[in-house]
Amino acid sequence: MFASRKRNRRKAASGEEAGWLSKLSLSGLQPLFTESARHVLGMSGAIIAGVLILWGLATALDRPIAAVDVGGQFQRVAPIQVEEAVTPFRGAGFLSVDLDRLQASLEKIPWVDRARVERRWPSAVRITITEHVAAARWGEDGLMNTRGELFLRHTRHIPPELPQLIGPEGTEEQVAKLYLESYPRLLAVGMRLAKVELDPRGAWRLTLANGVQVRLGRQDVEQRLERFLRIASPLVATRSGEVEYVDLRYSNGFSVGWNPPATRMAHDAQDLTPDA
Questions:
Q1: Of the candidates 274, 225, 216, 214, the residue with the CA atom closest to the CA atom of residue 250
Q2: Ranges for the POTRA domain (predicted)?
Q3: What's the domain range around 120?
Q4: How much is the average pLDDT of 142-157?
């Protein structure tokens, strides 16, 4: 009986303690949940308000482009060509206009090497055009720039003073490379390069401004050019009117072809049959 009473008292005490803890937990957590919810709602409201402000500001600033300012030194590019490239973008907004697409459109114009496009506050676009500088002609009617790039394949107007580069389709870069490397070296010995030719067999031939041909062949082109500069160029410089060509397709020398009356002289050549 006594044990039963003790057990009852323990259960009652235990029940009161559990109820008290439950009330304490709920009463303590309720303010915490309320405070967190208010914080989240406050942050969300601030973010939404910020987004709306930025959207409204962007909308207000994205007014239609009112002016297009074009700069650069124009010799080959016509203003009407620039106008045609810009026209599709005139209805765009100041902020939403696609400057990359506009730049690409401008750089498709013949003779345009580079186009720089930038916004000018509050509603203008500034365009700066840089034209290609023609350094050589390719074949009969193509043009190459100072980097050796073929930028026009067919043109009616070719400056007559430009050197001519000739080669099979797809060899433009290779021919331009030899021209760019040879031109200053020949100029250093008083000779101007007028033509560089690569034939379908892979043989190289240079033509100087005085009409003298320098035949380099297919092999050891660099070494043969160096041999011409060191040994043969003094002869050509002093007797250019008499020399028709200099053939360097030999292992250790060269031969000279003379203008009429036809005479041929072999110079320091043990084997008079060209290698290649």
A1: 274
A2: 63-132
A3: 67-131
A4: 92
